[in-house]
Design a protein that fits this description.
With 456 residues, the chain is α/β, with parallel strands linked by helices. 41% of the residues lie in helices and 20% in strands. Strands 12-13-14-11-10-15-16 form a 7-stranded mixed beta sheet, sandwiched between helices. Strands 7-6-5-8-9-17 form a 6-stranded mixed beta sheet, sandwiched between helices. A 3-stranded antiparallel beta sheet has the order 3-4-18, with no helix packed on it. It is globular.
């Protein structure tokens, strides 16, 4: 079996990688286990920070080459690929600065002489990572886990093997201990077997809902810790008193970043009836002005999707929604540039029960739904099995607080772009997953929060 790196814009095969053999898998896991034993027992937190600082330096030094690798392998616009690398370096900075404080034992006042909670690492953690942010997703999961004392084995998406290889090389160049971060070229079917290996003590997956359920099923059977960041159908609420210009500017950026291939992209625009017609008209004008093209071209706004089959699935969702009564405002077709490109699309009058409302649309398709009032907007937003992120636009601080508290999501942004931040915990509820990444809480996910009591 092989993994192919294919440029989605040109269709060119860039590289071919052989999958690892059973013996290579065994050897990799054993090496990771040895690395973990040495890392958490003999290396203080301040020494663990040093290679993280070097990793940030290497990311910045090689940002052009790394961003080019992303763009050529999965089609992200080059400017967005550069931003992804920069964000990875920033995350390293944040954790290098805060790791010691975030891992400090928490003192608890009891009748004993001393009582405290000590975060201790679990062991070797398996990362099962997606292709849409091939560096960011890995870095944001790996760095906090490693700094907490764990070792990492990466199973990356099969269509970004060059990014996986580049990440492995970066960790080696930053002088992380041998085996502390390693990559396996394996199929999705082999993940189950690896989770069952006693060396693996936890699993972090970012990906589809079906993949998350499969991983959770096996991890649960083996009683191993799991963190899942799955799909999203994030609501973007525009209330009657919203700043409409700000909401429109944010809407375009939020929905169409990375050609719409983002779990936290705004996907369901829920707009108060007072603004509905105007918002729809003005959003359509902005969408129609977006240029589809070569992701290496600075004038391109929308690049290709990562694979042609993703276009097929997206088009099926659009067609099913139109058949169910949605109104096509613009787009709705593949573009002539390449089979992997899809026209920036706007569907209006989208309601629960339609594919574009109920399912995650992973591509440049926006939907808009009319809300009669604030409570209706909240109800529509919560009419989803997903619960990752949400956004609300209102000029009233009290209203913003009430709406934010009543949205069934892992995070809510008010009057601004929904995004992940390494200083803050990130994750969802419902079918968007469980557990948290980033921030102090994310760092503690793959630790044993051990209670220690000293009586005398």
């Amino acid at each position: 079996m092989q993994q192919r790196s294919v440029n989605p814009w040109t269709g060119e095969t860039l590289a071919v990688f052989d999958q690892h053999s059973d013996q290579e898998i065994v050897n990799t896991l054993k090496t990771a286990s040895v690395a973990f034993s040495q890392w958490h027992k003999h290396i203080a937190i301040y020494s663990r920070v040093e290679p993280v600082i070097r990793l940030a330096q290497r990311l910045r030094e090689k940002r052009i080459a790394l961003a080019t690798c992303i763009t050529q392998e999965m089609g992200k616009r080059f400017s967005e690929s550069l931003a992804e690398i920069d964000k990875c370096a920033w995350l390293c900075d944040v954790y290098a600065e805060n790791a010691a404080d975030w891992l400090t034992p928490e003192q608890i006042k009891t009748e004993a002489k001393k009582s405290f909670i000590q975060p201790l690492p679990l062991g070797v953690i398996l990362l099962v990572m997606p292709w849409n942010y091939p560096f960011w997703q890995v870095i944001r999961a790996a760095i906090p886990a490693i700094l907490a004392g764990n070792a990492i084995v990466l199973k990356h998406a099969s269509n970004v093997p060059q990014c996986a290889q580049a990440l492995t090389e970066l960790f080696a160049e930053a002088n992380f201990n041998t085996g502390l971060f390693s990559t396996l070229f394996i199929s999705g079917q082999q993940v189950d077997r690896i989770i069952r290996d006693p060396i693996i003590r936890g699993v972090s997956l970012t990906g589809s809902e079906p993949a998350g359920r499969a991983v959770a099923r096996t991890a649960g059977e083996m009683l191993k810790k799991v963190v899942l960041e799955l799909g999203g159908s994030d609501p973007f609420i525009v209330l009657e008193d919203a700043d409409l210009d700000l909401a429109l500017d944010t809407a375009i950026q939020s929905r169409f970043v990375n050609a719409g291939q983002s779990c936290i992209a705004a996907k369901r625009f829920i707009v108060d009836r007072y603004h509905y017609d105007d918002f729809t008209k003005r959003l359509a004008e902005r969408i129609q002005a977006l240029k589809v093209g070569d992701p290496m071209d600075a004038n391109t706004n929308i690049g290709p999707l990562a694979r042609t089959d993703l276009c097929d699935a997206l088009h099926q969702q659009v067609q099913a929604s139109l058949q169910a009564g949605a109104k096509l405002i613009c787009g709705g077709q593949r573009t002539p540039e390449t089979l992997a490109c899809y026209q920036p699309t706007l569907l209006a009058d989208v309601m629960p029960g339609m594919a574009a409302f109920d399912e995650e649309t992973f591509g440049p398709v926006a939907t808009i739904t009319k809300a009669s009032d604030i409570q209706h907007a909240i109800s529509l937003a919560n009419s989803s099995r997903f619960g990752l992120g949400s956004t609300v636009f209102t000029r009233d601080g009290t209203t913003a607080q009430v709406v934010a508290e009543n949205l069934h999501t892992g995070c809510t942004f008010v009057n601004g772009l929904m995004h992940s931040d390494p200083r803050l915990p990130f994750g969802g509820v419902g079918d968007s997953g469980l557990g948290r990444e980033m921030g102090r809480l994310g760092m503690l996910e793959f630790t044993n929060l051990k209670t220690i009591v000293v009586q005398q």
